UniProtKB/TrEMBL annotation:
GO molecular function, a single term: DNA binding
Keyword DNA-binding: yes
InterPro entries (alphabetical): Cro/C1-type_HTH, DUF5753, Lambda_DNA-bd_dom_sf
Organism domain of life: Bacteria
One Pfam family linked to the record: DUF5753
Protein's UniProt name: Putative DNA-binding protein
Residue intervals of the HTH cro/C1-type domain: 19-75
Keyword ATP-binding: no
Alphabetized UniProt keyword annotations: DNA-binding
Transmembrane segments: none
């Protein structure tokens, strides 16, 4: 068990290791501990291995069982606060080291597939960013896209809601360039691109960005984002539930070949493209 940032020990890691140390010091098995604190053995195991952070109530119950005052509860609070502070920073490192990424975006072209002009347009819609911050944001997004290139590009599957193809930048040239880029990206061997059509109707991930990431350690994590916040999700049960939502949506989406044809049709319909593009 280790923190995402190499060489940095997180409060979450310290909390999990302290839970395991306390149980070993008392000489109890997980079964014995479960009997004493009225929590399931599997739940306690996930706390000790870092698979779950758990609740403050669980930390307080374990403090009572071990006779550690507020020690474990205080460690839990530090881990929880650390998670809130570092959710964006952690995600950048996780994405850069992922071996596989799956994403759904319900409102915009995913950052990993954006052109510079499209990224610039989307960042400017925030309104609160300075020109310098917008420029820095565009550079950061272009740098993130390096995971899709090189000798060992990550395998990336993107689901785009059909809404993305309707809510487009005001500048026609920006959208035409973005469509061309999506068509090119969809034909790369390491990229799968599927459109979730309107006919799917209501689903579990409206107006949401969901990313599922596979890490070299074998751990899977998720990242959920809306227009005003984002959260790195590490709890095993929560990641599994989000993965189920993603799989259900993927099964309802157009196939990669059907999605590619739809993108080509959108480009052919675009005012800046009087002549159909070559396939």
């Amino acid at each position: 068990m280790s923190s995402f940032a190499e060489g940095i020990i997180s409060a979450r890691v310290v909390y999990a290791e302290e839970l395991a140390r306390q149980r070993r010091m008392h000489g109890w098995s997980l079964v014995e501990l479960a009997d004493r604190c009225n929590y399931e053995q599997s739940y306690l195991h996930r706390l000790e291995t870092g698979g779950r952070l758990g609740t403050l109530e669980a930390a307080q119950a374990l403090d009572k069982v071990y006779g550690t005052g507020k020690h474990l509860a205080n460690l839990w609070r530090l881990a929880k606060e650390e998670s809130k502070r570092s959710r964006y920073g952690n995600f950048a490192g996780v994405e850069a080291n992922a071996t596989k990424i799956q994403e759904f975006n319900g409102s915009a072209v995913p950052g990993l597939l954006q052109t510079k002009a499209y990224a610039d347009a989307t960042l400017r819609t925030a309104g609160s960013l300075t020109a310098e911050q917008v420029t820095e944001g565009v550079v950061a997004r272009m740098n993130r896209q390096l995971v899709l290139a090189g000798s060992k590009p990550v395998h990336y599957r993107a689901l785009l809601d059909e809404t993305v193809l309707q809510r487009v930048p005001l500048e026609p040239g920006v959208w035409a360039e973005q469509l061309e880029h999506l068509i090119e990206a969809a034909q790369r061997p390491n990229i799968s691109l599927q459109i979730v059509p309107f006919r799917v109707g209501m689903h579990a991930l409206p107006n949401t960005v969901l990313k599922l990431l596979w890490l070299p350690s074998g751990q899977n994590v998720a990242y959920v984002e809306n227009s005003w916040s984002g959260q790195l999700v590490e709890e095993i049960e929560d990641v599994e539930q989000l993965a189920l939502f993603y799989d259900q949506l993927r099964d309802s989406a157009l196939s990669p070949s059907e999605s590619l044809e739809l993108l080509r049709a959108k480009l052919e319909e675009h005012p800046s493209c009087p002549v159909p593009p070559q396939t």
